[in-house]
Amino acid sequence: MQTLDPDILKTFLAFVDGGSLAQAASVVGRSPSAVTAQMQRLEEIVGEPLLLAQGRGRGLTPAGEDLVGHARRILAAHTEAWLALKGARADGRVAIGTTQDFADSGLPELLRAFAVSHWRVRIELRVGRSAELTHALQAGQLDLAITMRQAPAPDEVGVLREPMLWLCSQKGLAAREEEVPLALLDPNCGFREAALAALDTVGRRYRIAAGSASLAGLRTAVNAGIALTLRTARFAHSGIVEAPREFGLPPVPLAEFAIRLRQGADLPARDLAELLVGNLALTGVGG
Predict the structure, then answer these.
(1) Where would I find the HTH lysR-type domain in this sequence (predicted)?
(2) N or C of the chain: less Cβ packing under 10 Å?
């Protein structure tokens, strides 16, 4: 009996949750051809086709659907075993900072798993904007930070790539208008810059209908139907969905987030960083 490689299962779930091989490639940091080769290898191990042609993309066969649950359980057991061995004798303190994107989606379940296994380690959590967190990390106030990535940094230990999406209320906009009404975080914000640049590139008129220092403010404006926003799928819940194609919104790039570790950080912080690098891209989006 051949074993199921956890790395290949991570790629498979990245496809399942992202909906395409290209998105899976960006999540796991491999080329599309390497991802295709991994899926072919997985099909050889299983002995069944897992993917099928579906329109312009690919979907799952019945065997592929069956594998999803098994893959999630295998990876969960793999992570649980790794954490148990790492956390058995760990103690100390870990100060972690994150943007709201991951505080709302993905990070809580990983922090809980870490807290259970590293039960003698005191966790201190700080949620803020990327610039604030970067300053705190550089000042030694944080051991670890998840920030939006503007350029490569020497303290990066992992990079997460997720598609930016135009998002709106599931009820649509309250009123149609010629200008695109936007809900955006106050400067400086990578999503704000990407939204304005994309609209400027195609000559589409827009107005800032709502500005906020927090994602809660954006959520209020979008749910009210007075504006659209640009975020990732992590923001698309509680009445917020991807904007329909008839809105004619321009294409936007991938969002990049960096997992950054303070130089000289203690072992518990390094353990948590390794956990996030291996699992954060697979939590909080999709299944």
Answers:
(1) 4-61
(2) N
Please say which residue of 87, 106, 123 terminates a domain: 87
Given this model, what pLDDT does residue 250 score?
A: 96
Q: pLDDT tens digits for 224-262?
A: 999 999 999 999 988 999 999 999 999 999 999 999 999
CATH number for 183: 3.40.190.10
Q: For the segment 105-145, what is each residue's pLDDT rounded down to a tens digit? A: 889 999 999 998 888 899 999 999 999 999 999 999 999 99
Long-range contacts of 221-225 (CB under 8 A, 24+ apart): 221/183, 222/167, 222/168, 222/169, 222/183, 223/169, 224/169, 224/174, 225/168, 225/169, 225/171, 225/172, 225/173, 225/174, 225/175
Which pLDDT value is given to residue 30? 87
pTM over 0.85: no
